[in-house]
Amino acid sequence: MATAEQKAKRPRTDAEEGDTVDAALLQSIEKLQEIQDEIEKVNEEACDKVLELEQKYNEVRRPVYVRRNEIIKQIPDFWLTAFLSHPMLGELLTEDDQKIFKHLESIDVDDSKDIKSGYSITLTFSPNPYFEDTKLTKIYTFSGDEAVKVKATSIRWKEGMDIANDGAYTEKGDKRILVDESFFTWFNSEKNRSFAHGAMDEVADVIKEDLWPNPLKYFNNEFEEEFELVDDDEGSDDDDDDDDDDDDEDQGEGEEN
Description:
The chain has about 260 residues and is of the alpha+beta class. About 55% of the residues lie in helices and about 15% in strands. It has a domain at about 75-165 and about 180-230: Arylsulfatase, C-terminal domain, CATH 3.30.1120.90. The protein has helices at about 5-10, 15-70, 80-85, 95-100, 190-195, 200-210, 215-220, 220-255; strands spanning about 105-110, 120-125, 135-140, 150, 160, 165-170.
């Protein structure tokens, strides 16, 4: 029978060593999880602080946007020009849309007071021969389960002018054949139901996040200028590469001679 001293000196089996390694690994993972939980807590606190700042400066920006809209009203075809200059939005306007957009006086994006509950986009028009409304609004409401509720103005088209629902007619009373989809289908209830069920509303996203913050950039075609500058830089890099290749070829021919 083995003594206690002999048992102490007995070599450890693979199973015992494995148990020790597993215990050490488990302990390390538990400590790592504690650190990760701490990081998540800090991130949550940071998000809350950022949201508070967003809420504060949203109120500060509001009157500035109002003043900007008042100035924009004095510039003919401002929003039409900005839309047409935008690489995505410009593709959405048909010839009929462009005629209607000549009556567009202002665009307004208004976040909910707490920022995270939703926002609205309102297009304000001067009296026009196309529809009765002066304001067309889409409201996006976010709920806790990530569902989106979309509510839009039902456009009251004047007789024979409904280019969004295949209800447009000529002055002679003949039905017009519309090949391209109108921008104003964006207000149709069918599309809004798809947005509410998870489809991404790219138009709303681009207006809110890109056009609205600085429409002057697109009115002045600064976007195209920036794009051209990028192309020029890339072209210069290509030219430099070509020059380097030519130098290498010349050097190689000199060594052969």
